[in-house]
Amino acid sequence: MISTLGKTSGHLVAIGGGEDRTSDLDILTQVFALAPGDNQEVAVIATASGIPDQILPDYEAAFTRLGASRIHSLNIQSRQQAADPDMVRLIEQSGVIFFTGGDQLRLTHVMGGSATLQAIRERLAAGAVVAGTSAGAAAMPGTMIYNGAAADALRKGAVNMTFGLGLVEGLIIDSHFLERGRFTRLMEVGASNPEHLGVGIGEDAAVIIHPRGILQAIGSGHVILIDSRDLASSNIAELLMGEPVAVEHMILHAMVSGHGFDIEARRYLVADALDALLARDEPR
């Protein structure tokens, strides 16, 4: 079950990393376009980044080009800062909230249980768009990947999991997916918990998570889905740690921009079907 269903009017956007921040700004343009019509303020949160002073100016320049009325660059690096009422206030007045890349464990450590994270959840429920790139995308679900070798992760215990930011449930998001060969990471996760839908996002690609649980691919790259819900069998429960995992009937989809996926129905949506479904769900 996706926790955002019926509980939010805002959108999540998970970006695989490497998005264009200086030229056409394709993905960031679509993120900004999802903001509530009466709120063009943007909060950029650089908690995950080890180089916030280098990365924040890039996003300030990009969102300025896109027409943001105000940009709040939030270099929140401690739990004390995440509890600061001034930080909460800036989140509360923003229509776009954006997490940079970096280290998702740093992000969840600083944000977990904080007043700032609660304010972000409330803004999402009220209609704001919450986006994140790379680590900022991987940390969005209630459960996140934070480590695991790409080359041979289809072994019991090869992928490390922990609690994420809890903005959406039922998904596991992995970034830089094709460029770093991370297929086996999501396969191991799917074998361990078939209920979760694996979402592997390539660089300069993203997925919009619409309020009713519809995924929409955007950007120039691929979004890979690994669906294990109808997994026929696996040996993972009988293995010792580190032994190779067998799986039967794990389904893979490769989405490109304009295609989508209905999470509840587990149904791939070509462009026409996606457009029709999104048009039906638009407010009247």
Give a written overview of the molecule.
- There is one protein chain.
- This protein has about 280 residues and is an alpha/beta fold.
- About 30% of the residues lie in helices and about 25% in strands.
- The chain has a single domain (about 10-280), classed as Rossmann fold (3-Layer(aba) Sandwich), CATH 3.40.50.
- The chain has nine helices and 17 strands.
Strand/helix succession: EHEHEHHEHHEHEEEHEEEEEEEEEH
Please give the CATH class.
Answer: Alpha Beta
Roughly what fraction of the amino acids lie in strands?
A: 25-35%
Task: Give the helix proportion (percent range).
Answer: 25-40%
Number of strands: 17
Determine the number of helices (DSSP H or I, runs of at least 4 residues).
9
Which structural class fits the helix and strand makeup?
alpha/beta
**The CATH topology is what?**
Rossmann fold
Second rung of CATH, namely the architecture? 3-Layer(aba) Sandwich
For the biggest sheet, the summary is: 9 strands, mixed
What attributes characterize this protein structure?
alpha/beta; nine-stranded mixed β-sheet; 9 helices; four-stranded mixed β-sheet; Rossmann fold; 284 residues
Secondary structure elements and their pairing?
Blueprint: E1 11-15, H1 26-33, E2 41-45, H2 52-66, E3 70-74, H3 79-82, H4 85-92, E4 96-99, H5 104-111, H6 115-126, E5 129-133, H7 135-138, E6 143-147, E7 160-163, E8 171-174, H8 183-192, E9 197-201, E10 205-209, E11 214-219, E12 223-227, E13 233-234, E14 247-248, E15 251-255, E16 260-262, E17 267-269, H9 271-281
Parallel strand pairs: 1-5, 2-3, 2-4, 4-5, 8-9
Antiparallel strand pairs: 1-10, 6-7, 9-12, 10-11, 11-16, 12-15, 13-14, 16-17
Helix pairs in contact: 4-6
